[in-house]
Design goal:
- The chain has helices spanning 3-14, 20-41, 51-63, 73-99, 124-137, 139-150, 155-162, 166-184.
- By secondary structure, the protein is an all-alpha fold.
- The N and C termini lie far apart (40 Å).
- 30% of the residues are buried.
């Protein structure tokens, strides 16, 4: 699937063209579901949220942002990452409040790359808090981490979204992994 059709559909959708929303849904929904499935696989034990539910909710929230001036496919999926992160945090908070604490395990950082992880659980709340804190110090680094964890974008797409070179994204991701390991190490 090339980037041009999604970018073109986003523009047509934004301007209110008839049929553009349906065409965009056909292109984007399977990708959102794939991202949701990947994220949920990381904390599948005890999770009752299904990838379809997460993808549906993400698409519904994205639909509300129709008037956004989408620059390209990567921009759309970067925004999607923020939505999926928010939904994952909301879900975990609701689940944990029902369980009065719940049981969360951290995903080993060496597994948080472009491939699906085998970890039982991802401490979404700890990652979210770390990202919120990191955004205050280095918004671009926080965006790289968010895109790695929640978007499904490749390193090249993350570089494009952030306006950085691929090498810079790789280098900054290495730093972010070390920062997160230090930050989240006390929670294991």
């Amino acid at each position: 699937m090339s980037a041009a059709p999604i970018t073109e559909l986003l523009e047509r959708w934004r301007t209110g063209e008839t049929g553009a929303a349906d065409a965009l849904m056909e292109q984007v929904y399977p990708l959102l579901r794939e991202i949701a499935q990947s994220r949920l696989r990381r904390h599948a034990r005890g999770a009752t949220l299904q990838p379809t539910e997460l993808a549906n909710e993400a698409y519904a929230r994205l639909h509300g942002a129709r008037t956004t001036d989408w620059r390209n496919r990567a921009h759309f999926f970067a925004f999607s990452a923020r939505v999926i992160r928010s939904l994952a945090v909301d879900y975990v908070r609701a689940r944990d409040s029902e369980k009065r604490g719940g049981h969360l395990l951290l995903l080993p950082l060496e597994q948080a790359d472009d491939t699906p992880a085998d970890a039982d659980d991802l401490d979404v709340l700890a990652i979210d808090q770390a990202l919120t804190d990191l955004e205050c110090d280095d918004a671009v680094l926080a965006q790289i981490v968010e895109l790695k964890f929640f978007s499904g974008l490749s390193t090249e797409e993350i570089a494009e979204t952030c306006g950085l070179s691929r090498a810079t994204v790789v280098r900054r991701w290495r730093y972010a992994r070390a920062w997160l390991a230090d930050r989240l190490g006390n929670r294991t």
